[in-house]
Each structure stands twice: as structure tokens, then as C-alpha cells.
Amino acid sequence: MVPEIDLAWRRGIRPEPPIPVSDWADRHRILPPTSAEPGRWRTDRTPYLRAVMDALSTFSPYERVVLMKGAQTGGSEAGLNWLGYIIQNAPRHRHAGHAVARYGAAQHHRAD
Known about the structure:
Layout: H1 3-13, H2 21-28, E1 30-31, E2 39-40, H3 50-55, H4 75-89, H5 96-106
Antiparallel strand pairs: 1-2
């Protein structure tokens, strides 16, 4: 193979370096015009969600993340950021399916 083509091919198949969910959201998430703050997601606007989102990253040592929060504090948006991150970065990650099931199930349970 021609060295330039080989080098370009190798660069093209090299995986992206791992980034935390919060960085992924800052780079890729766009909030719709109907949002309270449309446009690019900025984790700096909700700094209390950074640790939660980063704990959901594929390279995080945590296997379970629990979020107790008040209403309208960005928890659902953090979940959407994580889903976008998983879709782009780890569609076959071993914890992704289980976490989606848990996240979805958690949405339907209420504490009395």
C-alpha cells in the first residue's frame, strides 16, 4: 500500500480519545428553539450535573449512578446528554443497554 494512503487509512480508523459525557454535551448537544435556553448545551450553566454526567461515561469506574434531584433541575437533560453520548461513542458498550433499561424504568417509579 502507498505510505500516504496507509497513514490516512490508519488515522481514519483510529478511535476517538475517550471524553466524559459533559464534554461530549458541550461539543455536540444543541437545545431546540422551544428550550428555555436554546442553542448549544453549556455544562457551566448546570455545574452540579457535571459529576453525574461524567460518572455515566464509558470509562468511569462506576457501575451504578443514582440521581436524587428536585423538579426542573436538568436531570432529564443530563439523561439525554448521556443517551447521545452512548449512541455516538459506545453503541455496543456492555453497560449501555442495562443503563438505558434502568434509566427508563426509573422514570416510571414514584416514591410515596
